Write the structure tokens for this entry.
Amino acid sequence: MGANQQTSVPAFTAGQVLTAQQQTEINTGIPVFADSTARTAAFGGTGEKVLAEGQYSYLENTNSTEVYDGSSWVAVGASALTFITGASFSAVSSVTVDSCFTSTYQNYRVIFLVTASATGTGDTAWQYRAGGATISTSNYTRGLIGISSGGSFDGNYGAGGTSFALGSTGVGESNYAMTLDIYRPQQTTLTNAFVTNMQSYSSTTPRYGTLQFTAATAFDGFIVTRSSGTMTGNYRVYAYANS
Amino acid sequence: MTHRINDNGIDRDMTAEEETALDAVRAEMETQAAAADDLLRTRASARAKLVDLGLSETEIAALVG
């Protein structure tokens, strides 16, 4: 129990002498509760305030500040993107991320960076995962547009692969950046994604385009693999708010 | 040499199964890269022949990009 936690939000009468505990609760400003159950119990009883629109609260179990809108408690300052997971990696051939796509959210954004000291020269492959297993069926179809260092366009299309090939990185590569917007990966349907990436090794520098997994499959994770050598960097997975 | 993997935030050595999967992905990517190289060579060859025929850069771009 935190020092600010309370179990009641008192209402006072004219001339009432306040206890030290009541003064402390008032000094807290936004009332602090152990969880939403304790919060519900703290309003409307004898000597307690009646819950009304505009009431704020802080919940210790979720570390969240919420406001009552007259019918329900809603998050304060909710973001359009919710951070799901992220990590750094060093001199690895592959990076796996499991249990990051759930039914809580519909669409996701993944940002994958190679930040220093890549070895070897190779392409970057993306595959989905489900239940801790990599999906290697021939359902990875991509259509990418690149712009060469000379300014011309370079189409890149591949159907029925066992992975998405998403751009080369060279020796010492420290500027590879990939962003994927993935639509409904956790639903049993065709999974589409839009990818952009930047690389400094190949003559084709920026690439962008669409990716489709062409079989109705639900995914909960992904793996990024380098076709040769190792990579060092980090990744972040975010979820788009549903509303 | 044992390959390394970042497994949900932890760098570690790959298992035998993971190394087998890595080899399979790398073989597939080599195939894709070879196909892309073939396409580029074919395009370069076509451009060279069109230049020999006297087509302008605009005309060549309209034909082969």
About this structure: The interface with chain B takes residues 85, 87, 89-99, 122-123, 125, 127, 134, 136, 152-153, 155-156, 158, 161-163, 165, 225, 227-228, 230 of chain A (CB under 8 Å). Helices of chain A lie at 20-27, 36-41. The longest strand of chain A covers residues 204-217. Residues 20-75 of chain A form one domain.
